[in-house]
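Pasting as-is:
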Amino acid sequence: MTRAGVGVARRSRFSSWSLRKRLLVVTIALFMLLTVAVTVTSMLVMRSVLLDRLDDQVREYGMRMQTEAEQSFRDHRAQQLDPRSPIGTVGVLQIEGITQQSFYITGGGRTESLTPPQTARLVGSSPGIEEEPYTASLDVRGDYRAIELPVGNSQNIRLFVALPMADMNQTMLAMTMVIATSAIAAATLLVALADVTIRRAMRPLTNVVLTTERVSQLPLDSGDVHMSNRVRIDDPATEVGRVGESVNRMLNHIETSLGARAASENRMRQFVADASHELRTPLAAVKGYAEITRKHELGMSDDARLSLKRIEGAANRMSALVHDLLLLARLDEGREVTFAEVDLSKLVVEAVADAQAAGREYPVGLDLPEEPVVVQGDVLRLQQVLANLLANARVHTPEGTSIDVSLGLDGQDALVTIADNGPGISVELAEKLFGRFVRGDASRSREAGSSGLGLAIVKAIVEAHGGQISAANREEASGAVFTVRLPLAEDT
């Protein structure tokens, strides 16, 4: 993966974190960055201070030894350095590059001579600038801060004095440990405090999320809607409080709009029910008068008999439409369904027999389980579901199409499947198949007397039984398949 891809992946992972986690991580990251910056700055300042102090000590002891060496040369005494200096002090006296004396003070006035490599390291590390401190590493003796001084007016006599840096390094190490320990303790405390603070600050936003989740689970697609969920606002002056107020205003608006829609649906449903009920009487009268007129058709002309036939056909189609509308209105109101134990196996057998009698040119296959399948429902309405689905298969497929009906079990549900090998369901029709006044073939449906409400009635009846219905094209062959899922009776 390229660097750009890795960067995108990291940003994607970071953006998928919760807001609380991101705030916590950013807070800790900023704190650690600031701590590191302060620590590095403090250590650099501390090292500079300690190094300046050590340089002053090196100069002090160096100038004292320089004075003693000059006095020794003036008195023509042996060129010996006075080792009365702090433990660990190193001194080297050279004349014309040849070491005359070197010592390392071990304590109690005792000294040790430096080894030639140590002397070479001390002298070789000098930058050649007089009275300018420098750092030299004397192998196992560690790092030293040294200074080069001339003795007298001769440039051939050089004095090198050095003090160990061990104490300064230990001080720096101790300071680093103290700062690191303090930073870890402070970071741990900050994590706890920041987590509590962020949780408390995010609690109103969490209430907003919980409220919207509860609202999203409400059945808002139809019927009366009661949205009592509201966001509790502790402080409306904060940004989260303003978000909560906006959500509450939105929920009030949605509740008002859904209430108006529900009231409109109820009025429309009541109007359809009342209109359907009122139309039944005049339609019955029209059909009755048509039947009476049919008794005297011998004296009618051919045009009059044709008109009478069309009147009867239109009255029958209108009666079927009114009956379907009235049934849908009552199903929407939760009526027209009486629950009892129903032998679904027997209903399927009877529905298949009726379908074979109604359309002999459509062979129907049947597949049943060995044991009876019992559901809780309304016998008449479940018969209507099966009859409508079988009729739909005959109406929307050409003659000779085979229809396969199967009944089975899926957990605690009964599955009724009605499949055919016809042309299948078009893409345009699939999305609105169970809608009202939807026809697969408008011209043929009207000739057959279809109102376009058959599948809508099937869906309403199945859902009134607590079930589900779906439709799709067959995968292994051409044709459509309708699947009805109904819950089994409790004692099944």
